[in-house]
Amino acid sequence: MSAAAATPAPARQDKTTGGVKGKVRVETGSSAGVTVVVRRGDDQITNATTDGKGEFEVRGLRPGSYGLTFRKAGLKVGKVEGVEVRAGKMRSLGGGLYMSMDEGALAIIQGSVFRQDGRSLSGAKVELALLLPDGTAKKLESRLSSIETGRFVFKLTPEAARYRLTATAPNRQPATQEVEVEGAAIYRVALSLAPAAK
């Protein structure tokens, strides 16, 4: 009897407090793991972290006006002010929260593709893959080396990770190189494509 009476309790909404929820989108990387700080003036009230879909929810807030700050390494800090919370209500901010890259806090892989004679090779396809702990590779994105200099650039969040670059071009043997990213910095790469065997 007592167990049955206690079961509905978690589902009951506290009518004296409210909450806020929303979805964060990011320019690069995953929208998971964004820290959401709830403020009243300069005082931090509580915080939450976005899930794998970039969604967050904060409950138990007293009625009033709040500010939210969004933080994640490699992204510019985002802020929303004047969020009104009402008793017994969940305020939805929707999916309009967008965080752009912070150029000064990125891992940037840049390099060039060359022919075997040392001249730059334009139009080569350069693929970037994340090397996972189980040994598999997850393809992320690709670029074409530039026409003038054979250069390419990938901008990434600065979490420690290992990446593989693979360059391919018609009538050339592919070339690969692995890059160990350890934080915000510029990582330089040179890929040389030899002529395909006849």
End-to-end Cα distance, whole Å, is 82 Å
Give a short account of the largest sheet: 4 strands, mixed
Record field, number of beta strands: 15
Low-confidence stretches: 1-11
Order of helices and strands: HEEEEEEEEEEEEEEE
DSSP helix fraction: under 10%
Rg computed from alpha carbons, rounded to a whole number of angstroms: 24 Å
Looking at CATH, the homologous superfamily of the largest domain is Carboxypeptidase-like, regulatory domain
Globally, the shape reads: elongated
CATH class of the largest domain: Mainly Beta
Write a compact overview of the structure shown.
The chain is mostly beta strands and 198 residues long.
What does this structure look like?
This protein has two domains: 19-103, Immunoglobulin-like (Sandwich), CATH 2.60.40; 106-193, Carboxypeptidase-like, regulatory domain (Immunoglobulin-like, Sandwich). Helices cover 3% and strands 53% of the residues. The chain has one helix at residues 2-6, and strands spanning 18-26, 35-40, 43-49, 55-61, 64-71, 78-85, 90-92, 97-99, 107-115, 125-131, 137-144, 151-156, 161-168, 175-181, 185-193. Strands 1, 4, 7 and 8 form a four-stranded mixed beta sheet that branches. The protein has a four-stranded antiparallel beta sheet with strand order 3-2-5-6, with no helix packed on it. The chain is elongated and about 75 Å long.
Keywords, separated by commas or semicolons:
198 residues, mainly beta, Immunoglobulin-like, four-stranded mixed beta sheet, four-stranded antiparallel beta sheet, 1 helix, 15 strands, disordered N terminus
